[in-house]
């Protein structure tokens, strides 16, 4: 069966629409009068919100699992930048920890940081990478390893561990995704299937909300529950415009 959802961009738009719908359903439930007269209507709205939340979570999981797709190139670049910044944060944290707990004039500080160019590291590029490679070499020297095992340097292992973890995260992010065309298409279909499930539940939620608010003319529109997801773009235009990251 051909999925209704035809692009990652459309799935993202549907996910964002679902978040707005959940807020509107919750607002409608709160607006209804208390007491037994509208107990069933409040239950309909609560059930609708829960169903949309459940299906939206499935779409979020499918989108997260499809990060290897070309449509997510912008997200991968943003994550790579964030991980690189976290690596620099770990470098600065190591330097600050040594300065605070020992001294900026200590031999350990001199061994690890003979050149303090932290402000330039965040620019990235070849020079920043060369600095970080040199720091990694210095971090592995016998002198640093020995000091990290001494009681007076009990703070050092944790700082070095953070540095190592940040480096590994950057390296893992930079490894190219290992997926063939069939695997990538399977990831797309997972997203499309989850989005179609959400689309069906959103339709059900809209009907439930309309019924629950039928005794209060105007509320359905005021709360935005009459809104519908945008119609999908054509395959060609959708593939040309991957769009942006969904909220999680």
Radius of gyration based on Cα positions: 26 Å
Q: Provide the structure class.
A: mainly alpha
How far is the first residue's CA from the last residue's CA? 29 Å
- Main β sheet profile: none
Q: Can you put this structure into words, describing what you see?
A:
It contains eleven helices and no strands. The protein is an all-alpha fold and 248 residues long. It has two domains: 8-68 and 178-240; 75-174, no CATH class. Residues 234-248 have low confidence and may be disordered.
Topology:
Blueprint (H helix, E strand, L loop, with lengths): L7 H24 L7 H27 L7 H29 L5 H6 L5 H4 L3 H15 L2 H6 L8 H19 L6 H32 L6 H4 L12 H6 L8
Helix pairs in contact: 1-2, 1-9, 2-9, 3-8
From the structure above, extract its key features.
248 residues, mainly alpha, 2 domains, 69% helix, disordered C terminus
Task: Provide a short characterization of the protein structure.
The protein has 248 residues and is mainly alpha-helical. 69% of the residues lie in helices and 0% in strands.
């Amino acid at each position: 069966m051909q999925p209704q959802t035809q692009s990652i961009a459309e799935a993202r738009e549907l996910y964002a629409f679902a978040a707005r719908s959940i807020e509107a359903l919750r607002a409608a439930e709160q607006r209804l009068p208390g007491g037994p007269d509208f107990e069933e209507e409040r239950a309909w709205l609560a059930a609708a919100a829960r169903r949309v939340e459940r299906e939206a979570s499935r779409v979020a999981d499918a989108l997260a699992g499809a990060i290897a797709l070309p449509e997510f190139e912008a997200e991968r670049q943003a994550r790579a930048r964030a991980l690189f910044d976290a690596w620099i944060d770990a470098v600065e944290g190591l330097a600050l920890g040594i300065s605070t707990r020992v001294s900026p004039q200590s031999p350990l500080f001199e061994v690890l940081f003979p050149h303090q160019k932290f402000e330039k590291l965040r620019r990235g590029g070849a020079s920043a990478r060369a600095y970080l490679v040199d720091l990694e070499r210095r971090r592995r020297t016998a002198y640093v390893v020995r000091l990290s095992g001494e009681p007076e340097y009990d703070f050092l292992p944790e700082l070095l561990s953070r540095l190592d973890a940040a480096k590994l995260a950057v390296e893992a992010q930079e490894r190219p995704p290992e997926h063939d065309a069939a695997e990538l298409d399977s990831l797309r279909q997972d997203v499309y299937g989850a989005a179609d499930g959400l689309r069906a539940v959103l339709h059900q939620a809209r009907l439930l909300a309309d019924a629950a608010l039928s005794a209060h003319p105007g509320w359905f529109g005021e709360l935005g529950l009459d809104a519908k997801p945008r119609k999908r773009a054509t395959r060609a235009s959708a593939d040309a415009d991957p769009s942006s990251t969904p909220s999680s």
